[in-house]
Design a protein that fits this description.
The chain is mostly helical. It has 15 helices and two strands. Helix content is 76%, strand content 1%. A two-stranded antiparallel ribbon has the order 1-2.
Length: 371
């Protein structure tokens, strides 16, 4: 399948930050604080370090196969039939995750902002924008990221400035009180939210990157900055509204924005945080949807992925409506379902492919030396 648009390393850097943040800016602090309590910030720091190692893994695998996506790498290393089976499974996983993220969007808007609006209307309107972006190609999506990213940063800075006066240091004490096991659980949850999910980038890198060899810093630093965003949001949730209140809230950072009150004039800026969430969530769903459409097209040997976008979009809306009965159930399924799944496709699969490529090249080198 022809790759008809490529993005710069700078655009990849912005996409990595937005994908790392994704939906985490609203709902991640709840799970992290529930497991690790006031030590959630420690889990995030360790998770950031592990996340940078994962970015190195993705870069190392991708750079060994220039102009290929993960689907094409699967078929090259695993063979035609096994490669296609793994690629179909991988593309289906990306599609399921996109449906899950769309479900989060609909639940949040119908509960917090537009309670009288049918969730179907919200999902269809948002998905139409996603389909339009995917049909125009990854280059258009990346340019949109360049335009919206400065506004995202500006809103985040304003949010931090206005929330900071509410900080109470005693809320984060004592340290290391929860023990190792809860911290490890929170680390896995962080990796689920912000690192393992970036496996979708291997449907963009290196095949759609202009200078893939220069993308290492974009992957590493982009993931680091996205992790620091989540670290700030989670730590502020603990410092301002406390551990117990944060654990009870579905969206603690949204509740955090409600605490803003500067002189009785600047207050209730939760809509600002919602806008930041919409921006990052849009790009995360779009890249997942793009990756699944391209993955299905390449696996089925189609010349173009665009004819698949509308039927896949219709299925995505239906799937997002039935994938979970409610938001509480979705939160409880992270440890049992999503972490094992993302560990499989986000760490074990690229590790396996990298090992197979290393073994294959060693064998080829020995054969060449004998000849």
């Amino acid at each position: 399948m022809q790759k008809d648009g490529k993005i710069s390393v700078g655009q990849l850097f912005i996409l990595v930050i937005l994908l790392t943040i994704g939906s985490t800016i609203l709902n991640a602090p709840t799970g992290l604080i529930t497991y690790a309590r006031q030590d959630a910030w420690i889990s995030i720091i360790v998770g950031i370090i592990i996340g940078m190692l994962l970015m190195w893994l993705y870069y190392t695998l991708g750079i060994r196969f220039p102009n290929m996506t993960l689907v094409e790498i699967n078929e090259k290393l695993l063979g035609k039939w096994l490669g296609k089976f793994v690629s179909l499974f991988f593309s289906f996983c990306l599609f399921i995750i996109a449906a899950t993220l769309l479900f989060f969007l609909g639940e949040f808007l119908t509960v917090q902002i537009l309670p009288d609006t049918p969730i179907e209307v919200i999902l269809i309107l948002f998905l139409l924008i996603i389909i339009q972006g995917v049909r125009h190609g990854i280059e258009t999506v990346a340019r949109a990221g360049e335009i919206l990213f400065p506004w995202f940063i500006l809103l985040f800075i304003i949010f931090i400035i206005f929330v900071s006066p509410k900080i109470e240091i005693q809320n984060i004490q004592p340290v290391f009180v929860t023990g190792i096991k809860p911290i490890i659980s929170a680390i896995l949850l962080y990796l689920d939210y912000s690192c393992l999910s970036l496996i979708c980038l291997l449907m963009v890198f290196p095949g759609y990157i202009q200078q893939p060899k220069q993308a290492f810093k974009a992957l590493i630093i982009g993931n680091l900055i996205g992790g620091l965003f989540l670290l700030l949001i989670t730590t502020l949730s603990i410092l301002v509204i406390g551990v117990d209140n944060s654990a009870r809230q579905l969206y603690p950072s949204y509740a955090l924005a409600r605490k803003i009150n500067v002189g009785g004039f600047v207050q209730r800026l939760e809509a600002m945080l919602a806008i930041m969430w919409f921006i990052s969530l849009y790009f995360k769903i779009t890249i997942y949807f793009f990756g699944s459409a391209v993955g299905f097209a390449q696996t089925l040997n189609l010349k173009d992925y665009r004819p698949l976008t509308l039927p896949l979009g219709m299925i995505l809306v239906i799937l997002s409506l039935v994938i979970y009965p409610n938001i509480t159930y979705s939160e409880s399924s992270s440890m049992e379902v999503w972490i094992p799944l993302l560990l499989t496709i986000g760490m074990f699969l690229p590790l396996l492919l990298l090992c197979l490529d290393f073994i294959r090249k060693r064998i080829n080198t020995k054969i060449s030396a004998k000849n």
